[in-house]
Amino acid sequence: MACGGQEGVVVxxxxxxxxxxxxxxxxxxxxxxxxGIGYPKLTNENTEAFLTEWGEENGIRNVILETKHGxxxxxxxxxxxxxxxxFLYKIHRQYYTETxxxxxxxxxVIQGGNSxxxxxxxxxxxIGQHTLEPELRDGFVHTRGALAMSRSYSNNPGKRxxxxxxxxxxxxxxxxxxxSQIQTEKGRKYTEDQLRSYKELGGAPHLDGExxxxxxVVRGMDVADRIAATPKDDSDWPLEKLGIVMRIVE
Length: 250
What we know:
The protein is an alpha+beta fold. It is 28% helix and 20% strand.
């Protein structure tokens, strides 16, 4: 059989191999984390065991909060592993990718993470509604720049922390009389450094022993102050959206 005008020559049809775009494994992992593929839904019963195992491959590192007013860098404490790992895990699951500050009180706190927008609500459903055992440490108090988790004061005798809602203390300076009264009422004794920090830098000492402090601001307190000064309504809800995007420092 002749082919191509030349007798006895058979021309093989050339095979065409389609190029396949390389799989972006990092993107795949982010999508899986966001959707909860391969992750258990967290409960009060399984959270500690899960975070302990997850933490074996995910060390405690600093975190960056990106806001419209600038960046805030947070150091997370090794001494409060469940709260620190919980915070990092929520970033890993992209919960804090599109959340916001929902409470701003000058000379007190800026609070966020529990947005009622649709995506954060969906993410809370996928991750699981759960709380955290308190990790109250005498060495970590509510001086200016402290990072802590909020909690319910109703039907919560164990002072279990929210797993999503956090706050940063901006605070006010505290005088000797008030500090003495708080120590008496709470039955605690502040160190000289803690007393000096409360008097010179400020804070919110009435929250000590009530909420777990698990980190601190190491850069960007001026940003926190600008956020705290945002105009707000009677319930301390900011009148403009204060979006947050978080990332873990590599």
